[in-house]
């Protein structure tokens, strides 16, 4: 029975990896997997160039996170392999959101309109745009992911400690 469980978990992992690969092929095409491939985006007067590999890593991490979040809760934390994959993908999501913080601040500054008044020769930044709360949303998501990480670690520890006794 133990071998069948390992084989089943291996098939789930392989299926998730193939699903992530196919999804990346649909989104970026074959050119997205070439060395040095980039995605160009023009926002107002700013030109952003992002290496496709960064977006592929992001999309693959999200796929693994979502599949193993559902799988972990469905199995009620009974599969050690599913729990470990979820923990790894959860930590990767936290890191990705950490690195998106400065990027969201840059976008917020681009969309902020500036006003030059006659009484004041300096530029005044108008804070009325939809990007102001992006950083707070990213921090909130990180807190939710951190709570999931702690809950998964504690529940897994209790499940497998009880099995050993």
Helix-strand layout with pairing:
Layout: H1 2-28, E1 38-43, E2 46-51, H2 52-74, H3 80-111, E3 114-116, E4 123-125, H4 134-164
Antiparallel strand pairs: 1-2, 3-4
Notable features of this structure?
single chain; 165 residues; mainly alpha; two-stranded antiparallel sheet; 4 strands; flat
Description:
- This protein has 165 residues and is mainly alpha-helical.
- The protein has 4 helices and 4 strands.
- It has one domain.
- The two termini are 20 Å apart.
- The mean pLDDT is 82.
Net shape: flat
- Extended strand count: 4
Helix and strand element order: HEEHHEEH
- The helix tally amounts to 4
The overall pLDDT average reads 82
Helical residue percent band: 55-70%
Residues in β-strands, percent = 5-15%
| Intertermini distance | 20 Å
- Enumerate the spans where pLDDT stays under 50 for 5 or more consecutive residues: none
- Which radius of gyration do the C-alpha atoms yield? 21 Å
Number of domains: 1
Quick rundown:
The protein is mostly helical. Helix 2 packs across helix 3 and helix 3 packs antiparallel against helix 4. The protein has one domain.
């Amino acid at each position: 029975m133990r071998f069948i469980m390992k084989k089943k978990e291996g098939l789930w992992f392989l299926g998730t990896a193939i699903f992530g690969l196919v999804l990346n092929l649909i989104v970026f095409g074959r050119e997205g997997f070439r060395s040095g491939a980039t995605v160009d985006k023009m926002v107002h007067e700013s030109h952003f160039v992002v290496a496709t590999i960064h977006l592929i890593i992001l999309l693959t991490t999200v796929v693994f996170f979502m599949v193993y979040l559902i799988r972990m809760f469905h199995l009620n934390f009974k599969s050690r392999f599913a729990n470990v994959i979820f923990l790894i993908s959860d930590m990767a999501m936290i890191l990705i959101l950490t690195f998106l913080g400065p990027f969201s601040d840059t976008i917020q500054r681009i969309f902020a309109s500036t006003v030059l008044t006659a009484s004041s020769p300096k530029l005044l930044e108008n804070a009325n745009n939809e990007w102001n709360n992006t950083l707070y949303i990213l921090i909130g998501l990180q807190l939710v992911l951190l709570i999931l990480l702690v809950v998964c670690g504690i529940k897994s520890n209790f499940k497998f400690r009880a099995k050993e006794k």
